[in-house]
Design goal:
The chain is α+β, with helices and mostly antiparallel strands. It is built from five helices and four strands. It has a four-stranded mixed beta sheet with strand order 1-2-3-4, with helices on both faces. It is elongated.
Length: 176
């Protein structure tokens, strides 16, 4: 049984933001400090990624653990340390989280087909004890992606034996 009226519940739910959330701001500040430049909420890409780094062909999604079902497995839908499913109206929340997870998976597959790399950062990974490690990991991954995409291509030339070559030596004359 919900303790709030329909208007109170609507006001609470409408106050939940989808842009400029605290975890997203932490990732944005951390990447900017490390020298990465990005665009926000690119409308033309599937899923409207939170951060788009065109130079690296990478999209970063900053997901809330509850809304996107972190550590919630699709079979059991049990609560985890960072994602607790409410006991009231449980069926609604389970189906909502499942739909969100399926939509996230489909959007990332579409981005991968378009040649984009996807990085998902979870809200629980941005707690103060793990924050720097997570941001360093993102920076390492972005640099690794850039190096792979801009690697020089080495072409191996076929080996030739001296017997196979039919070219005259410089000391030989043409009158032989």
């Amino acid at each position: 049984m919900d303790k709030l009226t329909a208007q109170q519940r609507h006001r609470n739910m409408s106050a939940i933001r989808s842009k400029d959330t605290k975890p997203e701001m932490i990732v944005r500040r951390g990447l900017w400090k490390r020298g990465f430049r990005y665009r926000l909420n690119h409308k033309r890409l599937p899923g409207h990624p939170d951060l788009v780094l065109r130079k690296y062909r990478t999209c970063i999604f900053v997901n809330g653990c509850f809304w996107h079902g972190h550590f919630v497995f699709s079979d059991s839908m049990n609560s985890s340390a960072c994602c607790k499913i409410p006991n009231t109206n449980r069926d609604f929340w389970v189906t909502k989280i499942r739909r969100n997870k399926e939509r996230d998976r489909e959007e990332q597959l579409k981005l991968a087909e378009m040649g984009w790399h996807c990085i998902t950062v979870w809200e629980c990974e941005l707690k103060p004890s793990k924050r720097e490690e997570t941001l360093d990991s993102i920076a390492f991954t972005l640099n690794h992606i850039w190096l792979q995409d801009h690697q020089t291509r080495v072409t191996a030339y076929p080996q030739q034996n001296e017997e196979d070559m039919q070219m005259p030596m410089a000391a030989e004359g043409d009158d032989q």
